[in-house]
Design a protein that fits this description.
homodimer; alpha/beta; three-stranded antiparallel beta sheet; DNA-binding; Thiosulphate_STrfase_CS (chains A, B); transcription regulation (chains A, B); DNA-binding (chains A, B)
DNA sequence: CGCATCCTCCAATGTTTCATGGAATAGTGT
DNA sequence: ACACTATTCCATGAAACATTGGAGGATGCG
């Protein structure tokens, strides 16, 4: 009863998924894929990887069952195998942030000084329906196109400075991005408040919005 | 903005937690620790590891922040750093089972033929309050002592054959164990039905019971 | 204090993984 | 068929990891 060989085989099989989560580059790829499907080349440049290196990491993720592929002409688009994969990534991130001091320190360093005010999703939804604020999606345009918070407008961070005039000067902006560990909304709020615009950021982002199955506009 | 060095440092820090989940032995240790705290020696024998090897794995888990220690005399007891760690382990397990064909096959091989009937938690709680069934915790006695389903009695699997007479012959037994991937309840139900006793198993176990914050008896 | 227990640290070994560049493959367009 | 693009496969050296035995540190007991 309970053959130790089978038991080891089971845990080793589970570990293959764990191993796939055991590389910063692969986690970065998952982070990108959580926003929508992407070609290999796009992922490589976005994550700062060599093409073959990126492909190898994607193979690892695919063998673990975490991502799936779709062929479109000569391009191959990778995507997360399912919403549970995004949830796993988010939980790994949250556990690391809560339990691992180094991870928490790295997060705080990356996100920069805690000088930006944040609102939670309930407050955003309440104030959005009240017409009190304007939600701005500061992620790259294609991520906005792959799904965004209903009512939000898209101004990618790298266009925000030049397009700041598109925003009404007297309505508060709520900027959001990929997720709680994404730097874009922090930068956006700093830029906006630096220009004297009232701006806060959403405490998390699309990753958590999708995870909790809130409505999404396409 | 968004220093790539800091970004890499963040993902590498998250990856340290992922790496900790990238070994079958470490997952087995987490599986055991999810049932309650344990000494190093106990963990080593339970997982079939050398003492130093076990200690090394525990150090890895501790550095990742997934486990914590408590000294009691010469013994050192390890425990999960928090309930979120158990949730992370459970989700990894579930994602692997759902997305990775090898993991699913390994699980099915380990748990044996699907010849045992399962009930879910709602049904168990309903029938327990109705006095319709008797819940039997077939985990080792110390895991029962560390917390169990209210109303359940403890008959460890390795004592079940000799203590079968303690069970009323005409009341259905619901056996449960560590979790959905634990073999004990499967074996218990096979043993009981093999003796002509009416028995089913709980579809999951204490891991999921704790995760969903259901009441626990001590 | 001396000794036993329990565990961690250290060093050495073999194994696995990672990054990279070149070759091979699949699909597109001419 | 041919060139071209996008990606995977393969081989290689460098780095990281797992396992094991023995030394060492902390605690408890007589």
């Amino acid at each position: 009863m309970g053959d130790p060989t089978n038991k080891a085989a089971l845990f080793d099989a589970l570990a293959r998924v764990g191993k796939a989560l055991g590389s910063g580059k692969r986690l970065e790829l998952l982070d990108l894929l959580a926003q929508g499907e992407r070609s290999v080349e796009h992922l490589a440049t976005a994550a700062g990887l060599g093409l073959t290196t990126c492909s190898a990491h994607l193979q690892t993720l695919r063998q673990a069952g975490l991502v799936a592929t779709r062929r479109d002409g000569t391009k191959i688009h990778y995507r997360l195998a399912g919403p549970d994969v995004a949830a796993l990534y988010a939980l790994l991130r949250d556990v690391a942030g809560a339990r691992n001091a180094e991870a928490a320190a790295a997060r705080d360093t990356y996100l920069g000084p805690a000088d930006t005010e944040a609102v939670d999703r309930d407050e955003l939804r309440r104030r959005l329906t009240a017409g009190d604020v304007i939600a701005v999606d500061v992620r790259p345009a294609e991520e906005y196109a792959a799904g965004h918070i209903p009512g939000a407008i898209s101004i990618p961070l790298d266009q925000l400075a030049e397009r700041i005039t598109e925003l009404p000067a007297d309505v508060e902006v709520v900027a959001y991005c990929r997720g709680a560990y994404c730097v874009l909304s922090h930068e956006a709020v700093r830029l906006l408040t630096g220009h004297g615009r009232p701006a806060v950021r959403l405490a998390d982002g699309m990753l958590e919005w999708r995870r909790d199955q809130l409505p999404i506009a396409a």
